[in-house]
Specification:
Blueprint: H1 3-25, E1 36-37, H2 49-65, H3 73-87, H4 97-114, H5 117-134, E2 135-136, E3 142-146, E4 149-154, H6 155-171, H7 180-195, E5 206-207, H8 222-237, H9 243-261, E6 262-263, E7 266-267, H10 279-293, H11 299-319, E8 339-340, H12 341-377
Antiparallel strand pairs: 1-8, 2-3, 3-4, 4-5, 6-7
């Protein structure tokens, strides 16, 4: 298949997966998405605030790929933003600092896509809220996981806090803006010192959950690897003096995640509790950020892109029925039983990344052809 045909194929597949989310999970307002497919009695009792935040991101991925699409991806992202607010009683906030940070990160992207300042103001309000109520010195200066456990610190809270702080440091132009980067750097160094294996770069989940100072090494999730990668790259993009070392750390963790958590180029099933379905998606989201910063023909980039190719090929070989795609938590198997929409969101994020990779390859071929013609003319 030519590069052009491959790019077109994966653009089409990305559109189909976005449509599959609505096909299998779409529900009337205010539910918007059933928590699982098939929908079961009582299955929508939980308000999955942070899943919806990632649904905003998924729609914005589609908008970035095709801003003029008839589907109005940006409008759909705005609708999900409104849905979270309405279902949350008009408030941006809840008890979980990581949930709020995911919402803020999606809202920042809404601001960048729409130019509407109110989204940036909302993201700033969330940063200020989590800092006021969650930042403390227990186990070292860092952010707690939730308001009821201020002693419990983890990667899921501190990772997005670093990423959001870096992004707000670039966007908040107020003269009295907070020291976003100071907090971000402190949180990143806390993760590094407490939860990252200095030999391999593998990132553990959290510490002191039971107030015993113990690290939870039993939870080996792609989610944490993706967050640390994203945090390292975002800090590097701020012009930090150790930017090269930060990028090297991101690459090391990205590669270690594949070595430790994937089998034959596909991430294993991480659990069926619902939230776990989104973990792979977090890795692919921040792998995309990392790939954008790596040299085009570097061996690291080639290896990581090949992983995306292998894993998304596996996804589509098992989950596509000819009309739609229903992902399983294990992409080497067919979906069975009750599947949460978090799992579908991870499949969307990975497929959107594959579409971006194939489009860039097509552009590279076209650019090379133009350069060859130009050199012949000379």
């Amino acid at each position: 298949m030519t590069d052009t045909a491959n790019a077109t194929l994966w653009q089409t597949r990305a559109d189909l997966l976005q449509a599959s989310l609505d096909h299998f999970y779409g529900a009337p307002w205010p539910q918007l998405f059933d928590n699982a497919h098939p929908s079961i009695e009582g299955g929508n009792a939980t308000f999955n605030y942070w899943w919806l935040a990632h649904a905003i991101d998924a729609r914005l991925d589609a908008w970035g790929r095709d801003p003029d699409a008839s589907a109005d991806w940006l409008g759909q992202a705005v609708a999900i933003y409104r849905n979270i607010l309405e279902r949350n009683g008009g408030s941006l906030f809840n008890d979980y600092f990581d949930d709020m940070l995911w919402y803020a990160l999606a809202i920042v992207r809404l601001f960048e896509a729409s130019g509407e300042r109110r989204y940036l103001d909302d993201a700033i309000a969330i940063w200020e809220h989590v800092t006021e109520f969650g930042w403390n010195e227990q186990q070292g200066a860092s952010l707690a996981w939730r308001k009821q456990q201020l002693y419990y610190k983890n990667t899921p809270a501190n990772g997005p806090f670093v990423i959001l702080g870096c992004r707000l440091s670039r966007l908040d132009d107020r003269s009295d803006a907070p020291d976003y980067l100071g907090y971000a750097r402190t949180a990143f160094d806390w993760i590094t010192d407490n939860l990252v294996d200095p030999r391999t770069g593998f990132v553990e989940d959290g510490v002191n959950r039971e107030e015993d100072g113990r690290v939870d090494r039993q939870w080996r999730f792609t989610y944490n690897q993706g967050l640390y990668m994203g945090a390292a790259v975002e800090l590097a993009l701020t012009g930090a003096s150790d930017s090269a070392a930060l990028m090297a750390s991101a690459v090391r963790t990205a590669r270690t995640a594949i070595a430790e958590l994937a089998t034959d180029g596909v991430f294993i099933d991480e659990g069926d509790g619902g939230d776990e379905g989104l973990f792979k998606g977090v890795y692919y989201r921040y792998l995309r950020l990392l790939l954008e910063q790596l040299q085009e023909r570097s061996p690291e980039r080639r290896q990581l892109e090949q992983f995306v190719v292998t894993s998304t090929d596996a996804l589509w070989s098992r989950a596509h029925d000819g009309d739609f795609l229903l992902a399983a938590n294990d992409w080497t198997t067919d979906a069975a039983g009750v599947v949460p929409y978090s799992t579908e969101l991870s499949a969307i994020m990975a497929t959107e990344l594959r579409a971006a990779i194939e489009s860039r390859r097509e552009e590279g071929v076209e650019s090379g052809a133009r350069e060859e013609v130009s050199s012949r003319r000379v």
